[in-house]
Amino acid sequence: REVVLERVSGREESRNVEDFFHQLRVVLADNARKCEAHRVDLHNGGNRALRSILNEMTSYVLNREMALEMITGQLKQLGIGTCAVFLYDNEIVHRINSTWVSPDKAVLALSYDADREPGSPVMPENRRCSLNGLFRHECLQKPVRQTLLVNSLFFMDAQLGLIVCDLDFADPYMYESLFIEISCALKLSDLMAMQAKNQQKLRIAMQELAEYNSKLNAISQTDELTGLLNRRGFLSLAEQNLQLALRMGKKGVLFYADLDGLKAINDRYGHKEGDSAIKLAASILKKTFRNADIIARLGGDEFVVFALDLPEGIVPEILDRLKAYTGSFNGRSGRPFEVSISVGHVTFTAEGKVDIADLLNIADTRLYEQKKGKRGRRESN
User: Fold this and answer.
1) Which residue, among 148, 77, 68, has the nearest Cα to 114 in the 3D structure?
2) Which is nearest to 257 in space by CA: 331, 188, 326?
3) Cα–Cα separations (whole angstroms), residue 366 to 24, 259, 373, 377
């Protein structure tokens, strides 16, 4: 301005020069404001795109490939036209003073090209590639000159892979934030996948433990010789069924059975034959009673049967059936002894207080009376 004013003469010409430079200052200031507003818009748009990238990737954290595919729209907003993410099969941890190690191959996890023809395949068939020929990979081949930026994807000291994208000089500072967000999201995806895998292993282990405990519980409640319930198993199951029967107003019968003469069989024929007699008695009881009835061996030669909701007057019929099956077994057992079973029973209703221990005591007393009667009849004969 000063130089121009020195070369003009006259007030009118000076006024024109002043007007020109004033208008020039206005135009330059307006353009500067517009450039700054555009830069702020680019910065804000970049920040929004970066936030969207993080949101998209964390939304699909359980599906790493989908998470990467969902950010392609935001890459375009950031001015990135080409982007490829190559991930290692296993992350590489780099320690201080450790030798830098890089794998020979990586897997293409994202291939983005804003100029890709509609309908063309997004990912090539062969996604595993050599890092030595990285820039010759088909996903990075374009007919125009490109300025590509290669950066490692790190989370802490763990290298996850590489990212390659074209460089936008309009806002080069957003790349660092982009790489950090992608790295964090990928690491989170890996951690979530590992957690899901561990949870699945835990579920399988818990299921196996439950099955093992169930088997142990069955073993602990089962009589090894006969396969019937033992005392523990009977008391647990019978108590549950008794309480259910009382709530539903059902009646039932508890039978207390005893294998006659087991000591004599053991003394005369040996304990192996005594065990056979016990197993025969168990078979006879299982054949006599219903599948729904609870049959157990309390120990030694003692058995018990807990039967709910039996028809009126059927107890004599059950005892006759037991006697018939016993005779049938004795006729074809081929054993040097005969099986004889004494039975005492007690009925109960939903009225009043009913206890398994009390029922067992009453049935045992009646069993003793029956055995005493049998001995009396044998002695009189």
Assistant:
1) 77
2) 326
3) 123, 15, 11, 17
Q: Is the dihedral of CA 87, 88, 93, 96 positive or negative?
A: negative
Per-residue pLDDT of the chain (381 residues; tens, 9 = 90+): 666 666 666 777 777 777 777 788 888 888 878 776 666 666 656 666 677 776 777 776 677 777 787 777 777 777 788 888 888 888 888 877 777 777 888 888 888 887 775 545 566 667 788 888 777 777 777 777 778 888 888 888 888 988 888 877 666 777 888 888 888 888 888 888 888 888 888 888 888 888 887 777 777 889 999 999 999 999 988 988 888 888 888 889 999 999 999 999 999 999 999 999 999 999 999 999 999 999 999 999 999 999 988 877 899 999 999 999 999 998 888 888 989 999 999 998 877 678 899 999 999 999 998 888 776 655 555
* Spatial distance between the Cα atoms of 68 and 85, rounded to a whole number of angstroms: 9
Strands 105-113 and 128-130: antiparallel
Cα distance between residue 270 and residue 35, in whole Å: 109
Do 368 and 342 meet the contact criterion of CB atoms below 8 Å apart?
no
Cβ(165)–Cβ(84) below 8 Å? yes
Q: Judge whether 48 and 56 are in contact, CB under 8 Å.
A: no
Q: pTM (2 decimals)?
A: 0.52
How far apart CA 234 and CA 88 sit, in angstroms, is 60
The strand pairing partners of 124, in sequence order, are none
Q: Is the Cβ–Cβ distance between 46 and 128 less than 8 Å?
A: no
Burial of 180 (0-12, 13-18, 19+ CB in 10 A): middle
C-beta of residue 361 within 8 angstroms of C-beta of residue 302: no
DSSP labels for 79-119? T--EEEEEEEEEEEE--TTPPP---SEEEEEEEEETTPPTT
DSSP string, 164-215: EEE--TTSTTHHHHHHHHHHHHHHHHHHHHHHHHHHHHHHHHHHHHHHHHHH
The dihedral over CA atoms of 59, 63, 64, 66, expressed in degrees to the nearest 10, equals -80
Pick the closest to residue 289 from 228, 198, 379 (CA basis).
228
